[in-house]
Amino acid sequence: MTTLIINIKELLQVRETAIAKVSGAEMAILPTIKNAFLVIKDHLIADFGSMDNLPQIPADKTIDASGKMVLPSWCDSHTHIVYAGNREQEFVDRINGMTYEEIANRGGGILNSAKKLNETTEEEIYNQSKARLEEVMRLGTGAVEIKSGYGLTVNGELKMLRVIKRLAQNYPITIKATFLGAHAFPLEFKGNHQGYINLIINEILPEIAKNKLAEFIDVFCETGYFTVDETQQIMEAGIKFGLKPKIHVNQFNSIGGIQAGIKYNALSVDHLEVMTTEDIEALKNTKTMPVALPSCSYFLSIPYTPAREMITAGLPLALATDYNPGSTPSGNMNLVVATACIKMKMTPEEAINAATINGAYAMGISATHGSITIGKKANLIITKPIPSYYQLPYAFGSNLIDTVLIEGEIFA
Ligand code: NIG
Ligand code: FE
């Protein structure tokens, strides 16, 4: 099956580098080809270039992209798409003055979602989650990481991971599973943290490894959640079971989570709303991708990740949604890109790199996703006719996506 996309007004290539991510000043570089073509064969990008060099090949299908842009699909490296119900009441409570912390302390927040999840059947969770997945695919996401973490029991966590696996089997989008049993301490372990950690290590992790239910291990390293020592203990156990760390750090406080992540070779450290100079220094010359979640900052009215300081320091940065019922009930990567430009002063080029190739790196899939490169998956966004790619962040409330291709097929 060969598909030809022709007359592309501008093809946003996204640069492929030897280390499969872009850092610092490189993030400002976004190679594009004006008046371009792209060939898809067997679900992969087979060729692309200027229309002047359009190859004479038989195509099963031709898409005319006159006036439109083509770019790689968004790579959303941090989500909690699998959950039950919603937390709209807490949203209204926050409008009326309560803080996210106060809500969590009264047994709401993550524990509220965990209660709902444990009371909901696996089938129902699958149905709710697949609707969210289809929504983000229509919004241009072509690869997504999904975490557990609303079970907080052996059964609940495994149930979530099975739902993620089933989504991965039933949808063409690339899905990476992360075990986040260490998301919060269940009430019954409030006075016995080690007891819950032992449950994670001795009962849940072996099941995950046996059934290949996750590739990554996550911990919410934060005051009131998991300490740095507890985080290290859990990362260490995860690594023994073959899982690579990717952790929540520095959302509200800088307590050393970044340094712990780096020590255990975390693929990414995510949130980073509160960053010290030492935190930025620590990330230099490491393989760990910093990930910012600006729609979480927006929804909770908390600081934005200091992207400018980090990029000026030479660091890479990825952007993800954090789609979850409590802190970010939105999986819209277009809004994330716009918010990064508007609130974090990232340039459109930096934001697009952060949401594609660097997001792919933060899921360990930059060899196959995140740029227009021959041999990579044909996961593409075709925009509506727009004057330039600046429109993507500029027209922040508009849906500028015309067509989404996943593995070379139109996703309707
Ligand atoms: O990434 N910070 C920790 N976990 C999620 C939110 C969890 C929730 O409120 O349900 C996050 O923001
Ligand atoms: Fe998160």
TrEMBL record:
Cofactor binding summary note: Binds 1 zinc or iron ion per subunit.
Biochemical pathway: Amino-acid degradation; L-histidine degradation into L-glutamate; N-formimidoyl-L-glutamate from L-histidine: step 3/3
Catalyzed chemical reaction(s): 4-imidazolone-5-propanoate + H2O = N-formimidoyl-L-glutamate
Cofactor: Zn(2+); Fe(3+)
Binding site for 4-imidazolone-5-propanoate: 87, 150, 183, 251, 327
Residues annotated as binding Zn(2+): 78, 80, 248, 322
Keywords: Cytoplasm, Histidine metabolism, Hydrolase, Iron, Metal-binding, Zinc
Gene3D superfamilies tied to this protein: Metal-dependent hydrolases, Urease, subunit C, domain 1
GO molecular function, one term: imidazolonepropionase activity
Binding site for Fe(3+): 78, 80, 248, 322
Statement: the UniProt record of this protein carries the keyword Iron: yes
Record InterPro entries: Amidohydro-rel (IPR006680), HutI (IPR005920), Metal-dep_hydrolase_composite (IPR011059), Metal_Hydrolase (IPR032466)
Enzyme nomenclature, EC number: 3.5.2.7
Binding site for N-formimidoyl-L-glutamate: 150, 324, 326
Function recorded in the entry: Catalyzes the hydrolytic cleavage of the carbon-nitrogen bond in imidazolone-5-propanoate to yield N-formimidoyl-L-glutamate. It is the third step in the universal histidine degradation pathway.
Stated family: Belongs to the metallo-dependent hydrolases superfamily. HutI family.
Protein name (database record): Imidazolonepropionase
Organism encoding this protein: Flavobacterium algoritolerans
